[in-house]
Amino acid sequence: MITEITAKSLFRKYKRIESWFLCRYGMNLYRGCGHNCAYCDGRAEGYYVDGEFGRDIAVKANAIELLRRELDPSRRRKPVAGGYVAIGGGVGDTYQPAEKTYCLASRVLKLLLQYRRPVHILTKSTLVQRDIDIISRINDVSRAMVSFSFSSVDDRISAVFEPGVPPPAERLAALAAFKKRGIACGMYLMPVIPFVTDLVDKMEASVKAAADAGLDFVVFGGMTLKDGRQRQHFMRVLERHFPDTAHQYDIIYRGDRYGQAHPEYYEAVNQAFVSLAAKYRMPMRIPSRLYADLLNDNDLVTVMLEHLDYLYKQRGYRSPFGLAAWSISQLKEPLSTMELGLGRIKGVGERCRKVVREILETRRCGELEEML
Ligand code: SF4
Q1: Ligand 1 within 6 A of 329 CB?
Q2: What's the predicted TM-score (pTM) here?
Q3: Which of these, 100, 165, 322, 328, could form a disulfide with 309 (CB 3.0-4.6 Å)?
């Protein structure tokens, strides 16, 4: 059942730059999702999505009015910060079936074009191709990126766990169409489903497909499974189609309140992914050429340090960059003008200082480019 609701606000502002999607703002046009993926954590109680997940959808009917107000510089206390505006993620895919009727995404994109905002769309639906012309115009004016999420590129497995979503083959074809228009595209290989799509041959097929399609990056993530509605629903689907794997879930998911699996499990699948990304030369984070000119100094340094930290950790090394990134993200003054020496920022030691200076002077980071 579809219900129209009146939302109080649309823009979701992040406290700090979000380095997975390169955004400071995001938005959800729908609550609930007709795609009904078996693993969707939007089903978990903590997200307070009313009704039966997958069937009951709330539409933010006043989204356009709200966004127009939120983008209007004369009504804002502070200008909209740099970086992409993220469309997607959260508890409902923007291009889910209800979007065919409401066309909210198209109208949102037109407004973002008018205000010259860069846009990063994350979806599982090929319906996004409907808006290819407007996305292309945004790309010409301010830049656009289109990413699709996959749990694998196996159409048969996708039909089981992602019953309302176009098969991976069609998603890859849609990405190829965006690439043909000169738009940067990525794959979010997340979540891989334990013991079903986290097998090396399945992951390799996904990374290879991304490389073959000429995608700009692949971002990887494991699955979370929260006790309650999410776990009950997922396990019902798993037991019906992959009964031999079910008992292994009790070993890796032990009731963590955030639904995290055992760290050793994530470590193992991450290692497998790192090797595959290296084999197919796929960047595991969004490359800096797609954002270096969009961010202010502090955000740029934060993102690059976070990416470095991620890449070192994936390779099994400790890194000083995570703490330094966090400290810099909390600064109120611009890094380039601050009188306080870099060395007095918490976690910024000699090695970090060198990297920070290089980023401030060149807007690039040789170490990061090498590791990607
Ligand atoms: S497309 Fe995304 S939001 Fe929608 S059900 Fe699937 S995982 Fe959840």
Answers
A1: no
A2: 0.95
A3: 322
